[in-house]
C-alpha cells in the first residue's frame, strides 16, 4: 500500500491547501511581472520570491494531476509575460542587469514546468519542458553565462533521453533534438571543452533523419569550429581544423545524396563550396600547395564557383611552388574579372609583391595600372590600393624602396590625378597627401633622401594650390630642401627653399637658406641670412644659437663670430635665451683665438664681457659656486695669456689692455668670496704698467702726465693689496716671483722719475728693494745703469744701487769681475760728473778699491781693457793739478795710475813712460 493511500483525509486535505497557497503566491508574483513597465529594470525580488515558492512546492511532491495542470499553466503564463516584456523593450533590453533578470525569470519558468513534466492530458510534455530549458539555455549562452546555459541544456537532454526517438514523428521535434545537441556543443566549446564539443557533434550525426536542412546545420557547425581554430593562428590547431572541415565536407556530400528539393541542393552546394575554400586556406597554411590547387580546381570545374578568393588562393599556391608565371596569370586574371572586389585584388597584389619582391616589380606596376581602369568609380579604392602597396614604410631595405618607387609611378599617373581632382574628392586628396607624406617621412628618417625627395614631390601633386594651402605647400618645399641638402645637391635645395620663402617667409626658411650658404662656404651669404633672422615674426633666439653651432661644425669662423655677436645683442633686452651669456662670450673668444691676427677683436669682446660683468655682477654673469669660479678663471687666464702673447709679439698697447682686463677678472668675487685672486691681480697690474712703459719706448714718445699718474695708481693698487704698513716687501717676497718684484720696483722708479719732488721716493723704493731677500745684483745693476743715464737720471739712486750691487758681487765666492769692472767705471763716472772738489777723495777711494780688488787676481781675471781704463783715467786726473801747481794732488793721482798700470799686463811701455815722467817731475821740483 502507498503512503498517500494510508494517509488520512485530513492530511491529504492539508497538502491540497498548501499546493493551492503556493500556487496562489506564484500567480500573484506573475501578476506583478505582467504589470511591470517594459524597458525598466526588473527587480531581483521577482525571481527570488518565485524561486522560494518553487522550492517549497518541490518539497510537497508528488502532486495531483490537477495541481500539475495548474503549475503547467502558471509556467506558460510566466514565460509569455517574459516574452511580452522582451518584445516591448525592443528584442533586447538596454542593460546587462535587466537581461540577467529576464534570464532568471525564464529559468524559473523552465524549472516550474519541469515540476509538471509528467502531467497527463498534454501531448509530449517532456519535449515541451525540454524546449523551455533549451530556449533559456540559449539566452544564458548569449549572456555568456555558460554554466547556466550548460545546466539548461543538460536538463533538456535528460528530459529527451526518456523519450523514444522512434515515437517522434514531427520534423520540428526531430530538428529540436539536433539543435539541442548543437547548442550544448557550442557551450562546451566556449568553456574550452573541445573534446566534449566534438563528441556532441559526432553524436548528432545520428539525429539527421535524412533531412537536408539538418545536414546543413551540422556541417555548418563543424565549419564554424574549424574557422574558430584557424582564427587563433595556432600551429597545433591546424590539423584539428582540417579534420573538422573534412567532417563538414563529408556531411555536405551525404546531404546531397538525400536531398530532394532544388533549393536544398543549392544551399548544400553553397556550403560545400565554402567548406572547400576554407579547406584550401587550411592547406595553404600548412604549405600544402598542391592540395590548395586541387581544391581550387574542384571548385572551378565542378561547382563553377567564381568566388573572388579562389584567384587569391591559387596565386598564393603557385607562389608557394615558386611558379611565378602561373601566379602572374592568376594576378592578371583578377584585373580582367570585374567581380573581384578591390580589397581582394589589393591583398593578392600585396602577397605577390611580398614573395616575388624586386623580380616582380615590373609586373606589379603593370597590373597595378591595369586595375586603374576599373577604379574610376571609387577614389577611396585608389587610397586603399596605395596604402596596401606601400605596406610599412618604416622598414628599411631595397624592398621598401621598390614599393615606394611603384607608388611614386602610380600616384603621378594622369588617371589617378584625374580621379582625385574633383571637388567631391577633397577628403581623398587629403588622405593621399597624408599617406605619401608619412611614407616620405619614414624614408627621410632612415636617411634614404633620394626616395624621400621623390615621394615628397609626388605628395605636392595632391596639395591644393589655393591660398589656404600655401603654408602646407611651403612646408613641402622646406622638407624637399632638407632632402636635397642631405643629397648634397645644394643648388636644387636652394631653389626649393626660395619657393618656400615666397609662400611663407618665416624663420625656418631663413635658417635653411643660412645652412645652404654655410655648406656652400659662402660666408657673406650666410651672414646676410643671420642678419635677416631677427626681422622674422616667428624669430626666437634659439635659431641664432643653432646657427652658431652649425657654423662651428663647418669650421666657418667668420659666421660663428657673426652669429654669436648677434646673439649677444639680445641678452640686455631680457628675452628668454637658449644659453647663458658667459658661455656665448667664452665660445666667441675661443673662436676668435683660432684665427690669426684677431687680437684686437678678442680684446673688443673681452671688454664687452667686462662691461656686462660690471652691469650684472659676478654672480649673475659668471654664475654661482664652483661653476662661476671656473668661468671667472677661464676669462682671467685667457686675458693673461693674451697679454703674454701680444707682449711677446711687441704689441705692447694690446698687452697692457689684456693685462688690465686680467686684473679685473681676477678681482671679481664669486658667491660672497672674501678674498679673490689677489696675487694674480697684483701680477696683472704690474704687467699692465710694464707693457705701458714698453709701448712708450716702442713708439718713442713720452707718456702724458695724466697717463703717468694713472700708471702710478695701478702700481699703488698692486702694493696696497699685498702689503701692510710695516711689512710691505716681506709680503711681496712671499707671494710673487723675484722678477715681478723687480719689475714692480723698476716701473715705479721709472714713473717716479717723471714727476717732480719724487727723488726721495725713488731712493726709498730702491733701498727697500735692496733689503729684500729676493734682491738680485743683476737687478740692482740694471737699476743703477738706468738711474745713471738719460734726462731723468738720479745719481743718488744710481750710486746707491751700484754700490750695493758691488758689495753683493764682491761678497760672492766667485764674483763676476765683468760686472764689477762695469760698476766701478759707472761709479767713477757718476762721482766725476755729479761730484765737487770735496768728492775727489771718494773718487780716489773708488780707484783704490779697484786696485785692492785687482791685487791677488790671476792675470786677465779682471777685464784688461777696464784695468787699462782705470790706470789711464787715474793718470790723466793728475793733469789738472799739474797745471794748477797742486803738486801733491798730482803726485797722488800719478802714483795711483802707476800702481794700477803695474797690475795690467801689456802696459809696460806706458808704465816706463809714466815712471820717466814722474822722475822728470821730481827732478824739476828738486831743482826749483
UniProtKB/TrEMBL annotation:
SUPFAM superfamilies for the chain: TPR-like (SSF48452)
InterPro entries attached to this UniProt entry: Spo22/ZIP4 (IPR039057), Spo22/ZIP4/TEX11 (IPR013940), TPR-like_helical_dom_sf (IPR011990), TPR_rpt (IPR019734)
Gene3D superfamilies: Tetratricopeptide repeat domain (1.25.40.10)
Keywords: Meiosis
Pfam families in the record: SPO22
Domain of life: Eukaryota
A single BP term in Gene Ontology: meiotic cell cycle
Name of the protein: Protein ZIP4 homolog
Origin species: Nicotiana tabacum
Lineage of the species this protein comes from: Eukaryota, Viridiplantae, Streptophyta, Embryophyta, Tracheophyta
Gene: LOC107768518
Amino acid at each position: 500500500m502507498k503512503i498517500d493511500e494510508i494517509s488520512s483525509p485530513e492530511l491529504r486535505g492539508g497538502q491540497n491547501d498548501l499546493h493551492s497557497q503556493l500556487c496562489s503566491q506564484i500567480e500573484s508574483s506573475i501578476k506583478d511581472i505582467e504589470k511591470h513597465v517594459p524597458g525598466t529594470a526588473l527587480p531581483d525580488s521577482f525571481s527570488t520570491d518565485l524561486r522560494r515558492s518553487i522550492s517549497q512546492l518541490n518539497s510537497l511532491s508528488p502532486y495531483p494531476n490537477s495541481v500539475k495542470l495548474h503549475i503547467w499553466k502558471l509556467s506558460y503564463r510566466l514565460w509569455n509575460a517574459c516574452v511580452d516584456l522582451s518584445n516591448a523593450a525592443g528584442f533586447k533590453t538596454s542593460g546587462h542587469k535587466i537581461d540577467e533578470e529576464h534570464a532568471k525569470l525564464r529559468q524559473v519558468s523552465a524549472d516550474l514546468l519541469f515540476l509538471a513534466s509528467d502531467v497527463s492530458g498534454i501531448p509530449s510534455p517532456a519535449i515541451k519542458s525540454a524546449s523551455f530549458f533549451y530556449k533559456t539555455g540559449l539566452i544564458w549562452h548569449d549572456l555568456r553565462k555558460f554554466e547556466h546555459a550548460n545546466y539548461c541544456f543538460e536538463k533538456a537532454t535528460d528530459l529527451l533521453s526518456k523519450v523514444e526517438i522512434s515515437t517522434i514523428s514531427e520534423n520540428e521535434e526531430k530538428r529540436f533534438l539536433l539543435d539541442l545537441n548543437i547548442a550544448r556543443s557550442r557551450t562546451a566549446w566556449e568553456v574550452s571543452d573541445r573534446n566534449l564539443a566534438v563528441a556532441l557533434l559526432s553524436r548528432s550525426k545520428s539525429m539527421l533523419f535524412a533531412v537536408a536542412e539538418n545536414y546543413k546545420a551540422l556541417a555548418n557547425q563543424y565549419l564554424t569550429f574549424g574557422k574558430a581554430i584557424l582564427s587563433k593562428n595556432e600551429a597545433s590547431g591546424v590539423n584539428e581544423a582540417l579534420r573538422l572541415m573534412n567532417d563538414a565536407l563529408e556531411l555536405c556530400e551525404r546531404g546531397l545524396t538525400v536531398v530532394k528539393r532544388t533549393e536544398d541542393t543549392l544551399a548544400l552546394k553553397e556550403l560545400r563550396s565554402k567548406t572547400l575554400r576554407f579547406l584550401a586556406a587550411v592547406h595553404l597554411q600548412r604549405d600544402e600547395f598542391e592540395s590548395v590547387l586541387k581544391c581550387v580546381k574542384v571548385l572551378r570545374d565542378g561547382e563553377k564557383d567564381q568566388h573572388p578568393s579562389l584567384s587569391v588562393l591559387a596565386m598564393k599556391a603557385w607562389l608557394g611552388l615558386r611558379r611565378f608565371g602561373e601566379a602572374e596569370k592568376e594576378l592578371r586574371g583578377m584585373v580582367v574579372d570585374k567581380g573581384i572586389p578591390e580589397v581582394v585584388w589589393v591583398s593578392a597584389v600585396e602577397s605577390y609583391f611580398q614573395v616575388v619582391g624586386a623580380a616582380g616589380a615590373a609586373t606589379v606596376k603593370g597590373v597595378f595600372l591595369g586595375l586603374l581602369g576599373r577604379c574610376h568609380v571609387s577614389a577611396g579604392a585608389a587610397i586603399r590600393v596605395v596604402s596596401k602597396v606601400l605596406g610599412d614604410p618604416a622598414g628599411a631595405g631595397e624592398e621598401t624602396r621598390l614599393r615606394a618607387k611603384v607608388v611614386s609611378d602610380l600616384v603621378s599617373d594622369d588617371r589617378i590625378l584625374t580621379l582625385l581632382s574633383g571637388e567631391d574628392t577633397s577628403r581623398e586628396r587629403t588622405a593621399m597627401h597624408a599617406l605619401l607624406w608619412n611614407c616620405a617621412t619614414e624614408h627621410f628618417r632612415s636617411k634614404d633622401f633620394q626616395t624621400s625627395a621623390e615621394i615628397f614631390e609626388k605628395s605636392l601633386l595632391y596639395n591644393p594650390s589655393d591660398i589656404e594651402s600655401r603654408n602646407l605647400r611651403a612646408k613641402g618645399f622646406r622638407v624637399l630642401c632638407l632632402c636635397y641638402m642631405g643629397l648634397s645637391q645644394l643648388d636644387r635645395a636652394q631653389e626649393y627653399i626660395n619657393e618656400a620663402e615666397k609662400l611663407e617667409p618665416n624663420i625656418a626658411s631663413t635658417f635653411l637658406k643660412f645652412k645652404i650658404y654655410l655648406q656652400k662656404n659662402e660666408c657673406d651669404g650666410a651672414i646676410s641670412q643671420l642678419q635677416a633672422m631677427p626681422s622674422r615674426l616667428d624669430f626666437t633666439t634659439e635659431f641664432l644659437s643653432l646657427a652658431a653651432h652649425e657654423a662651428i661644425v663647418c669650421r666657418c669662423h667668420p659666421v660663428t663670430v657673426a652669429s654669436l655677436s648677434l646673439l649677444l645683442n639680445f641678452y640686455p633686452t631680457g628675452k628668454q635665451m637658449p644659453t647663458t651669456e658667459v658661455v656665448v662670450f667664452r665660445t666667441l673668444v675661443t673662436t676668435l683665438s683660432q684665427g690669426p691676427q684677431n687680437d684686437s677683436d678678442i680684446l673688443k669682446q673681452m671688454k664687452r664681457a667686462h662691461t656686462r660683468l660690471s652691469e650684472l655682477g659676478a654672480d649673475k654673469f659668471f654664475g654661482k659656486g664652483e661653476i662661476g669660479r671656473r668661468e671667472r678663471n677661464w676669462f682671467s687666464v685667457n686675458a693673461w695669456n693674451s697679454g703674454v702673447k701680444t707682449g711677446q709679439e711687441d704689441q705692447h698697447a694690446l698687452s697692457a689692455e689684456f693685462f688690465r682686463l686680467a686684473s679685473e677678472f681676477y678681482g671679481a668675487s664669486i658667491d660672497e668670496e672674501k678674498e679673490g685672486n689677489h696675487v694674480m691681480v697684483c701680477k696683472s697690474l704690474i704687467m699692465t704698467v710694464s707693457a705701458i712703459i714698453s709701448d712708450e719706448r716702442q713708439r718713442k714718445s713720452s707718456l702724458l702726465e695724466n697717463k703717468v699718474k694713472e700708471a702710478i695708481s695701478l702700481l699703488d693698487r698692486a702694493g696696497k693689496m699685498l702689503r701692510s704698513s710695516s711689512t710691505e716687501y716681506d709680503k711681496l717676497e712671499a707671494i710673487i716671483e723675484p722678477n715681478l718684484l723687480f719689475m714692480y720696483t723698476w716701473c715705479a722708479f721709472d714713473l717716479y722719475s717723471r714727476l717732480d719732488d719724487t727723488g726721495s721716493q725713488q731712493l726709498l723704493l730702491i733701498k727697500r728693494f735692496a733689503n729684500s731677500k729676493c734682491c738680485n745684483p743683476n737687478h740692482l745693476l740694471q737699476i743703477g745703469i738706468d738711474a745713471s743715464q738719460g734726462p731723468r737720471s738720479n745719481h743718488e739712486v744710481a750710486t746707491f744701487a751700484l754700490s750695493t750691487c758691488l758689495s753683493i758681487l764682491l761678497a760672492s765666492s766667485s764674483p763676476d769681475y765683468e760686472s764689477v769692472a762695469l760698476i766701478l767705471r759707472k761709479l767713477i763716472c757718476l762721482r766725476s760728473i755729479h761730484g765737487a772738489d770735496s768728492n775727489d777723495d771718494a773718487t780716489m777711494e773708488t780707484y783704490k778699491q779697484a786696485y785692492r780688488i785687482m791685487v791677488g787676481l790671476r792675470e786677465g781675471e779682471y777685464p784688461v781693457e777696464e784695468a787699462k781704463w782705470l790706470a789711464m783715467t787715474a793718470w790723466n786726473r793728475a793733469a789738472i793739478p799739474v797745471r794748477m801747481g797742486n803738486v801733491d794732488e798730482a803726485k797722488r793721482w800719478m802714483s795711483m795710475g802707476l800702481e794700477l798700470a803695474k797690475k795690467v799686463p801689456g802696459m809696460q811701455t806706458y808704465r816706463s813712460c809714466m815712471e820717466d815722467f814722474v822722475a822728470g817731475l821730481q827732478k824739476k821740483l828738486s831743482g826749483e
